[in-house]
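Dear support,

I submitted the protein below through the web form. The confirmation email said the job was done, but the results page showed an empty box. After a refresh the structure appeared. I'm attaching both so you can tell me whether what I see now is the final result or a partial one.
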Amino acid sequence: GLFFRPIKDLSLGYQLKDLNAKLKSNTNNIFERGLERDNEFPLSQRIGFFYHTPVRWARVAYDFEWSTAGEEKNHLGLEFAIPGVAARLGYDNDHFTFGAGLQIDKYLKIKASLDYAFVTSVIDEGVSHLFSWQLAF
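What the results page shows now:
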């Protein structure tokens, strides 16, 4: 991947993923009717930006992803943050998401954050509630 910051509030990025990636599997010794397979992963690429708007509590991110399998995806996110708290809205390839984050002050030189995201059904599996806890030493 490449990361570039042409001006203070704008970040640009490019990612190349799964270059010559393959997965071999052999189940001949496991099942009576085993299989040998060579699966190649499609090469995917992503380009995007992150921008701190002139309104210091608002940020926007967008990226576009495409692959040799013909898939194209759009990802858009907005974050509204004040010190210690953030609210987020997103669009992830035909699905809307939202979430929030809490930044916990440093204690014993450890910085922590708790994040939540709500993701609507992607393949009829229902909604997902995602929590992440980050510790920075």
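Response: this is the final, complete result; the empty box was a page-load delay. The CA atoms of residues 19 and 40 lie 10 Å apart.
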